[in-house]
Design goal:
This protein is an alpha/beta fold. Helices cover 43% and strands 20% of the residues.
């Protein structure tokens, strides 16, 4: 079984969603048939990855940064997708934090990175390296020797 985690931008431009979804599906098609995707199912890259994993017939594991993540961070226009993905998860792990915040995001990244063979980063390469963010997760993965695959299709943009 191949375990693949995801990190990536939440603020993808509308036209970029299709480009990233297609690239994720293409990448997952190259993976072994038995794939487990690990995602925080945040808006943008995380949810697009989770959708692609399920479409590929893989198993989804969700890591939530805090007990209040759904109420505190999931916006109304993302709630339906978030709830649907959460209901399809084979496993849900909630970090031991009451409230979402930088420390909780770092813990969620740690939980994800410590359990995967590969990290897919939907990343434009321009983010600052901050704890809990996309660039920070890529840096941590590389430091650990986790294979990193950057997906940023030509024409992709952030809002």
């Amino acid at each position: 079984m191949v375990r693949i985690g995801v990190t990536g931008h939440m603020n993808l431009a509308p036209d970029t969603t299709r480009l990233v979804s297609d690239a994720l599906r293409s990448h997952l098609a190259k993976a072994a048939d038995d794939v487990t995707g690990v995602s925080c199912i945040a808006r943008g890259a995380d949810s697009l990855f989770a959708e692609a994993v399920l479409e590929a017939g893989g198993m989804l594991e969700v890591v939530l940064p805090s007990r209040d993540y759904r109420e505190a961070k999931v916006k109304p226009d993302h709630a339906e997708q978030f709830d649907r993905l959460l209901s399809k998860a084979a496993r849900v792990r909630v970090m031991d934090f009451d409230h979402a915040g930088r420390e909780a995001y770092v813990a969620a990244n740690e939980a994800m990175l410590s359990s995967v063979d590969e990290l897919v980063a939907v990343w434009d390469g321009e983010s600052p390296v901050d704890a809990g963010g996309t660039a920070g997760a890529v840096t941590d993965a590389r430091r650990r020797g986790v294979r990193v695959v950057v997906i940023w299709p030509e024409g992709a943009a952030r809002q």
